[in-house]
Amino acid sequence: MRFLLHTLTLVLLPAALSAQFLPPSSSIFERDGVVIPVYENFDALAPLFDQRSDTTVIINFWATWCAPCVEELPYFEELTRDHGTRKIRVILVSLDFRKQLTNRLLPFLQKRQMQSTVVVLVDPDANGWIDRVDSSWSGAIPATLIFNATRREFREQTFSREELQSLVNSFTGIQE
To answer: What is the pTM of this model?
Structure first.
């Protein structure tokens, strides 16, 4: 029972903390206490990309079937866990297919006890929304958009821990 309560806290608390950042989702995937917003089309998620505040928003596009994506996820988790007084918000946009939510995505998130906010985008018309994230994006993942009120930067790459930390520090004013 204690493990279950701890797991539910890890999954639900980040979602509650980030609810103010997320636009209303098209639907919710919920199972075993895990709640994941599902966006049927990019238009529903689009307001997230237009926010401007003193918070640095880090949006990473990934999927469980993408080995480089999975390799870098621990670095995003470190940002979520260890941000200290920096105003940052990590949002992991899963591009896993709808049929993979129950058998692949959910076990993946539970096993790793992910603390970052995870949402799912299942819009099949990627060619219609990729340029809206960034015109330089070829559509390959992993891809990451980082922005705040004064700066916006897009990277289509796999990050090392040091590369991601350095980029985020350049947004938050932390000297290395």
So the answer is: 0.85
